[in-house]
Amino acid sequence: MRDDPADDPMTEEIAEPAAEYLPEMAREAATEAAPPDSAPPVIASDDSLELVAADVCGCTACKLSATRTNAVPGEGAPRPLVMVIGEGPGADEDATGRPFVGKAGQLLDKMLASIGLYRESNCYIANVIKCRPPGNRDPQPDETAACASFLARQIQLLQPRFILCAGRIAAQTLLNTSTPIGKLRGKFIDFKAGDTAIPFLPTYHPSALLRNEDLKRPAWEDLKLLRAAIEGQ
Description:
There is one protein chain. By secondary structure, this protein is α/β, with parallel strands linked by helices. The protein has a single domain (about 55-230), classed as Uracil-DNA glycosylase-like domain (Uracil-DNA Glycosylase, subunit E), CATH 3.40.470.10. The chain has eight helices and six strands, in the order H-E-E-H-H-E-H-E-H-H-E-E-H-H. Strands 1-3-2-4-6-5 form a six-stranded mixed sheet. A hairpin with a 2-residue loop joins strand 5 and strand 6. The radius of gyration is 17 Å and the shape is globular.
């Protein structure tokens, strides 16, 4: 039996201030062994988010460049508390050049707002791949490889305090694993970005929540875990 909608912030009826959704929560987060180390990107001293965006928009390294309307570099606060990383752009994102602006993006904004996070002030939102795969198919290995340096540069430049990873493909790509998202979620993993280990929390993609309401409760538990970690630092 589902909980009363008033207790579930991830419904279409979210309207109350985020603080009213925040119950008492534990201050400790589970950890897991860090994924294998990888060589950090070479970041030029004059690199910037603007240069990354320009490089993304001019990139023709894979076949997605031939079918995109707009590349989608990412957007948000330049020194974010949380970086949200998803899979890739959909039709609305391809049309606008902005990440997470369709129905899934609107739900993501509500999810983040429920724990006091906003792309305008303390979040940065990006994707593993920067161009829409035709028909929203899964990105192919050569496509994720072509975009890998862009995301790595963004992480190094942003230095987020936490990473919230939305969805199976993004989590499996960044952690170099085939473990299902249902087994990855619910705990923090130390994600190595150069010499820094960033607390990395996988959760379900908002589009999955729109397809299956049973996933809303575990996704809310993940958000509470993130809120507790932020409050406990």
